[in-house]
Design brief:
There is one protein chain. This protein is mainly alpha-helical and about 250 residues long. The chain folds into two domains: about 140 residues, no CATH class; about 90 residues, His-Me finger endonuclease fold. It is about 50% helix and about 0% strand. Helix 1 crosses helix 6 and helix 4 crosses helix 6. The longest helix has 24 residues.
Length: about 250
């Protein structure tokens, strides 16, 4: 069993940005930048580093850059100061207090250039430190967003734009992907809430209905973030449409 040591260091800020922007007209162009970059080459089917995690890394890094650019243009040092924030994140996730040995001087007159030099400084301090802490945060953001099927529907609709004219083929769904969907959906059909846990071990592979949230014929991708659990009846009713449910089993 894989475990995650979750720190929850301001990750809900990025979750909120992702959830509020995904699928809204005013953010389509911005989010399309990720989709276009992500699928410049033929994508891997069911990659272990999910498309959602790649998006979370992209979002976090973009937010830091945009905030540094805002400070550079406005001359204001606001509460969300990316250099200070990253120092705190490194302490939280890596246990390293950069500020104690930090001989890096912040030039507020050219903050964006200073921010870029700061990234280089971190990577000299420890190889890949900046990308590493971005990845640490992204894993937590992904963990939270993966629970939100409404977000996943909107997210996968955005990614589907890249494959509308060249749909992905149906491929074998790896066991780790099935376990992830079973875990998130509590072993129940997301639509009718039928308990499938007792049946799961008895069914043959071709009888287990792991369903694409955004269907392949509508551009859906073969990725763990696009798979949900459904019973046979609900899956057949859904057919090739793109659909999910916002009903969840109460914790108590």
């Amino acid at each position: 069993m894989i475990t995650i040591d979750i720190k929850f260091f301001n990750v809900y800020y990025f979750c909120h940005l992702a959830n509020e922007s995904m699928g809204k007209f005013e953010y389509v162009t911005t989010n399309a930048e990720f989709t276009e970059r992500q699928f410049e080459i033929e994508p891997e089917e069911f990659p272990k580093v999910s498309v959602l995690r790649e998006y979370c890394s992209w979002l976090i890094e973009r937010v830091f850059y945009e905030q540094a650019n805002h400070i550079a243009n406005s001359g204001e040092i606001v509460e969300f100061n990316p250099i200070s924030w990253i120092n705190q994140a490194i302490l939280k996730y890596r246990g390293t207090d950069i500020s104690l040995s930090n001989d890096f001087k912040v030039d507020h007159e050219d903050y964006l250039e200073t921010y870029n030099e700061y990234i280089e400084y971190l990577n000299r301090y420890e190889d890949g430190m900046f990308d590493g802490v971005i990845y640490d945060i992204a894993i937590e953001v992904e963990y939270i967003l993966f629970q939100n099927r409404d977000f996943l529907l909107r997210f996968n609709n955005q990614q589907a734009v890249a494959f509308e004219d060249n749909p992905r083929k149906r491929v074998y769904i790896p066991e780790w992907v099935k376990r992830a969907a079973l875990f998130r959906d509590k072993g129940r059909c997301v639509f009718c809430k039928r308990d499938l846990t007792g049946l799961y071990s008895l069914l043959e592979d071709n009888e287990k209905h792991f369903d694409h949230i955004v269907s392949l014929n509508e551009g859906g991708i073969n990725d763990v973030c696009n798979i949900q659990l459904s019973c046979q009846d609900c899956n057949l009713k859904k057919s090739d449409s793109s659909k999910t449910s916002t009903l969840y089993q109460s914790a108590y």
